[in-house]
Amino acid sequence: MNQRRNPDERPRRRIGLMSEFGRFSPGRVFLAVLAGGLSGCLYALAIPLILTALRGPEGGLASAEASVQMFLGFEVSNGRLAAFFALFCLLIMITRATASILVARVSMDLSASLRERLCQRIVHSSYPQIETLGQAKLTVAVTDDVRRIIGGAEVVPQLLINGVMLVGIFGFLWYINTQVFLFVLGAVSFGVVTFHIPLLFANRYFHRARQLYDTLENGVRGLILGIKELQLDRHKRDGYFGQILRPCERQLLTAEKRAITIMLAANSYGDLLFFFAIGAISFVFVNYHEISSADLMAVVMVLLYITGPIAVILNTLPRMSMAAVSLRKIEEILGELPEQIEAERPLRQRDWHAISFDGIGYQHRTDKAHDGFTVGPLDFSVRKGQITFIVGGNGSGKSTLCKMMSLHYPPSSGRILFDEQVVDAECINDFRQDIATVFSDFYLFDRLLSPIDDVKLEAANRYLRELAIDHKVQVKDGMFSTTDLSDGQRKRLALVVSFVDDKKLYLLDEWAADQDPVFKKVFYTEILPDLKAQGKAVVVVSHDDRYFHVADQLLIMEDGKIVEKRHGHEVPHVAGMEVADATPA
Fold this sequence. Notes:
With 585 residues, the protein is α/β, with parallel strands linked by helices. 57% of the residues lie in helices and 14% in strands.
């Protein structure tokens, strides 16, 4: 559920592209800025250096009397100036490469750090917050948004180098002719203003496209997860494409095409701006202002030279715009997740014998104005060495109750007590370590993530044999050889993982639903009694009424309430319903 923000709460810090770089690695960013600024200055000095060589006091490079020296078998005019120019170019290359490499390396480090920050925020958030945000939005943020932000950051050295270069070039232009400098400055100012007008429209389309990415991600996920149903019905398949995927894809494509079209058209306009200025100076300006041929040649050369950095700057703007949009989306997600992740306290072993649920209730919220389905108030207990079945029809509240029992949903009312200890923020992580679950929508990792040793590895292989999947899956170095299994086999492998974890409370949500009759019998008549004999507290969501007699306690739910409690001995055992032993496939 969304938590209401306290009006007195301090506003969240806004994150910016360069500010994130500066905070992440100030030393390397400072060196990159320094190297980029120096590279830009050297680029700007290249023009006066070339002009000096062309029209030097002794005729420059064009002079027939210029000294000629041999170097590596080649005749080189004006050797000293040529050597200086070569060193000058080498210095430009070094400073430019240094700036680019430093920022690229910082951007890769920042990318990994930003992804980890987002993942840490996600894993420390409450489960209702994650459900509210949705898988699609979080996935796009962690993958595409971070990538776009780093893509925008990587062009920062180019912006810096070419920005400093423009300042230097304009300074040289002012040195050549003040009136020409003012004329060009006015043209640039006009160009910047007129360029940003279409840029505003492009940014709106970029923002619209970014919102549609979330919708498209959700649609693709539905296509993959619902492939079985869609392949069985052509009308459904056509409807899914016609009503969900194609409209979203068309809208996304339209928004991106419009954004890129406007941006590229604006870039072309910006590229030609200085050619217009050259034409105006060459054909109009000279008629009203006095300027020598040498100065006019220098001005035209400067304006031709300036088109390069202008083009670079304009070409980087789309990436910067997309990075800014993604940055706002990540900021929006971070605003929904915990502001600060406290250092995890050392876990404390807490012994307990029973869990009491005292008037617990949970209310789903559909939006700010309407409340959703309510479960509770519920009063019951589960004990170690006891099997509890939760039964009820679809929509009776079983799944919500399971998530409260696993401490994923914080009760909106009532208390959960482990013996006499009320579950609160101080101890919730301690008690979570005692819980193993296999939910109906469980996720099967490709390895044993908890610390393993030879004893646990041997236990894992033993459980694989007992559940008859050792011919499909082996454990090597803590990793499963495959997870490409049937639904029933995947649930058996998930159960193996929970056995290896060796928890105190086992919560199994309709585990037997995907099992064949043989393994249903094994589950109810062997696995559950064995867990009970080990002193585990076992809670099972089940519809298999033929095995209700296995339970020590039966909780029957309806419309979010426990309408009846029974003990196992009160449930008649239906003889002859179990399937005879058979060799499982």
